[in-house]
Amino acid sequence: MKRLLPLSLGACLILFWEIGCRAWSVPTYILPPPSEVLVTAFSQYRTLAHHGSVTLLEILSGLALAIAIALPMASAMFLFPWVERALAPFLVASQAVPVFALAPVLVVWFGYGIESKVIMATVIIFFPLTVNLLEGFKSCDPRHVQLFRMMGYSKYGTLKKLFWPWALPYFFAGLKVAVSVATIGAVIGEWVGAQKGLGYLMIQSNARLRIDMVFAAILWLSAIGLVLWWLAGIMSRRYAPWKDRG
């Protein structure tokens, strides 16, 4: 039933889109019907897979770099309050600046290759990871903390044995958010300057009025985001199975 509702809603929207395009004879260079988008998505799968693999690599690289930054940063901010006071304004500022403003600068600094796209994805991804993990640390039950102190655990021992397991569900919640928005950074970077990738393909197709290819690229991007979100859910159930227990 949980899956039936979104599937039914999606089917209704697609049907309305298809009927509307046919009934009003909407030109395909303005809005192609979903049937044509699906045909393009499958018939041009070699091109889409080639560019999609580049975008996926950018997303996964940005995700790995964001995790490598978020884990020690959240731990340091939790263990040392002065670090949180010092870094919190910069964390907020990193998200307040529009990503379109950063993309051209990153392309100038790091070039048209994969590096600028990975950095852009990292900028967007690391914030929900850091904030969620920090909130997970802070949400730990004080009674458990007191118990660990009575047992003689050090600050770092308590972090490893208590705070980390406690915060894992929060981390995976942040990971789900991160993988959902990860495509934004990579694609915007490709829009500004790239030689391949789904964002690059979208810009080139739009210039040629191949709107069906634009929508096909969007479909592939959505599929990438959904698969990554699904994998994050699997990891959450595998490594934090206690989060759903009462």
Automatic annotation (TrEMBL):
Pfam families: BPD_transp_1. InterPro entries: MetI-like (IPR000515), MetI-like_sf (IPR035906). It is found in: Cell membrane. CDD domains: TM_PBP2. The chain crosses the membrane at residues 59-80, 87-112, 118-137, 170-193, 213-235. Its main location: membrane. Keywords: Cell membrane, Membrane, Transmembrane, Transmembrane helix, Transport. It is a multi-pass membrane protein. Residues 48-232 form the ABC transmembrane type-1 domain. PANTHER family: ABC TRANSPORTER PERMEASE PROTEIN HI_0355-RELATED, ALKANE SULFONATE ABC TRANSPORTER-RELATED, MEMBRANE SUBUNIT. This is Putative hydroxymethylpyrimidine transport system permease protein. It comes from Dethiosulfovibrio salsuginis.
